[in-house]
Hints:
The complex is a heterodimer.
Chain A: H1 3-34, H2 42-49, H3 59-67, H4 69-89, H5 106-129, H6 137-153, H7 164-188, H8 196-228
Helix pairs in contact in A: 3-4, 4-7, 4-8, 5-6, 6-8, 7-8
Chain B: H1 2-24, H2 28-50, H3 58-95, H4 100-110
Helix pairs in contact in B: 1-2, 2-3
Amino acid sequence: MSSGTRTATLDRVRVTVTVIGGLVLVAVLVAAVLAVPPEPAPVADRARARLGATGVDHPVTAVLLSYRVYDTWLEIVVVLAAAMVVLLVARRADVSGVVPPRRPEPLQARYVHLLAPVLVMIGVFLVSRGTHTVGGAFQGAAVLAGAALLVWLSGGSGVATVPFHLETALLTVAHAAFVVVVVGTAVVGAPLAYRGTAAAVIVVVVELAVTVAVAYALAVVFLGARAAGAGR
Amino acid sequence: MASFRLLSLTAVVLVVLGLVGVIVRRGPLAQLIAVNVMGAGALLLFGGVAARDPAGDPVPHAMILTGIVVTVAATGAGTALIRRLHALEVYDAGLGDESGSASGGGRAAEGDR
């Protein structure tokens, strides 16, 4: 029996075992999901009832930047870590000069040239809505990062011309804002215990910093991933 | 209510499909996509849990928002690792040369899978 056939047999065993295990896991997880009570969780009403103290009018933004702001802080650090991993793997200090996979079509370049300002406006609009209705830093940042990548893919340089020091500042601005807020609130009272008028200001400042950092980090991650395939 | 059951059961299917994909598939890109399918299932479960509330539970909604951004960032980091690995494999296979750093970008681009 050749080693090729043995590998094929082992592969078949592995696939069979995995599929059977998967079906068992489906049964377990379905039982777990069906055990979840269908009634709404009381935490939703509590989140809406205490909205007045958070300084924002939209419950999702209140969860992100007030009730569970630790979560958002950690999430910012995760995105920053991803950008650092990509830059390390690409062996670069920044993503300046990274070229897209292929030259853009003339029509595409022209179209994106017209579209980019509109996308930036949509991104800023989404961020500006965050405190009172659907929208916010993460949605806005995703649109802005998408716009930057689209411009880059269509022959524009965009984030690929940002120098190292500015890039570091843009990547870390949200983390820095969180540190300032934690230290500031700790001096005044308890860490991250902000409410009322001060909370409204803090939320808007943090939201803007999060928008910049997340949008820039996402763009860096994808330009850096491109650069990681170059050279030996 | 009905959408809570539908969304959470679909989420279970996606999570298990993704897990099976990670184990069964050979090739890091396919496995990265399978991890994304798992992640989509987890986020969908949050969506289902949020749908129990008639107005939409804001707490799981916020988890989805941060979860999506983390997923995108992790996928990008995974892509960078895969591309780096591929570039090294191309070099080890003797397709690279000592002057590869200047022309390496173009060669790696041609070797894209």
